[in-house]
Amino acid sequence: MTNLNYLYLANNKLTLAPRFLPNALISVDFAANYLTKIYGLTFGQKPNLRSVYLHNNKLADAGLPDSMFNGSSNVEILILSSNFLRHVPKHLPPALYKLHLKNNKLEKIPPGAFSELSNLRELYLQNNYLTDEGLDNETFWKLSSLEYLDLSSNNLSRVPVGLPRSLVLLHLEKNAIRRVDADVLTPIRSLEYLLLHSNQLRADGIHPLAFQGLKRLHTVHLYNNALERVPSGLPRRVRTLMILHNQITGIGREDFATTYFLEELNLSYNRITSPQVHRDAFRKLRLLRSLDLSGNRLRTLPAGLPRNVHVLKVKRNELAALARGALAGMAQLRELYLTSNHLRSRALVPRGPPCTPVGPAQLQWGSQGHRDSLWAEVSACSLDP
């Protein structure tokens, strides 16, 4: 079959790959079989080969020959996820731009494993057993085109050093990271997304200069950590900041003093109390559109809420009443969530005039003209439960 370009044998019961395949192949898919062995000419000596899919098999290191891609240097996509590999395969094709090694048993990346992959743009290493000792300063340094790196669900205790400066998206969630040092991220000037959720970070584990100079960094996930306060030195141009499910007890005056571009802030499910929220804590957040304070210990709405927010969530707190003027000036508000608090009849304005009760569905989903009139009613009278 000298003209065969595409071969799809996924989802079968193959235990061995064919010893010889046609040299004209462009794409081969052996995913979801029971493969334990690949031969030298299964994929070797195929100059037109561009993509190889081997995920969800039973391949171990012994089943991959060192010469697996000899004469096939143009392979661009290699998917080896969900196998039993303990080492990165040797002599990977230099044209690779996408390499998937997730869901294996990798404990260490040997020196030079990626040194020939200057075209690589996406590297998936999540769900392995990588430790700090398994990565050195030069593990990634030759990956000058790498934009997407996923190291989530490993055994790292700190952010690795020597990360590629070309990175745009960095996954480090679901490790055991306790430290973000001063100079490990700052060289990555192209970084836009940083995902550090579900680690063991405390506020003092994040160096105040850890994000300095990262002008493109706009999305930061720090939820499910052990932060007892808002970390200092937040990225100045961050637009989405997720700090939910931590142990934060208060918000200081300077915590968000430099995050002028923040649009979405999620502080839900912490331990924030009303007296510990400084009245000027949100004064600089003039672009903020969504603020989530749900699941805290607020008994009153904090003073100085950002006036331009469209969405305000204060669900599952301890609010028993809303003081007069608590929402004054928030003309841009479109959605207000007060579910699961302790509000009772006439709790919103203790001595306000009587009015017709407005149901929460009406309040949230009324037309624009209706909604404006409802806000006026709510600010002037008490609601039935």
UniProtKB/TrEMBL annotation:
SUPFAM superfamilies from the UniProt entry: L domain-like (SSF52058)
Entry's transmembrane regions: none
Family matches, as Pfam families: LRR_8
SMART domains registered for this protein in UniProt: LRR_BAC, LRR_TYP
The organism's place on the tree of life at top rank: Eukaryota
Gene3D superfamilies from the UniProt entry: Ribonuclease Inhibitor (3.80.10.10)
Any single GO CC term annotated in Swiss-Prot or TrEMBL for this entry: extracellular space
UniProt-listed PROSITE patterns: LRR (PS51450)
Keyword Cell cycle among record annotations: no
UniProt keyword RNA-binding, yes or no: no
Keywords carried by this UniProt record: Leucine-rich repeat, Repeat
Name of the featured protein: Podocan
Organism: Chinchilla lanigera (Long-tailed chinchilla)
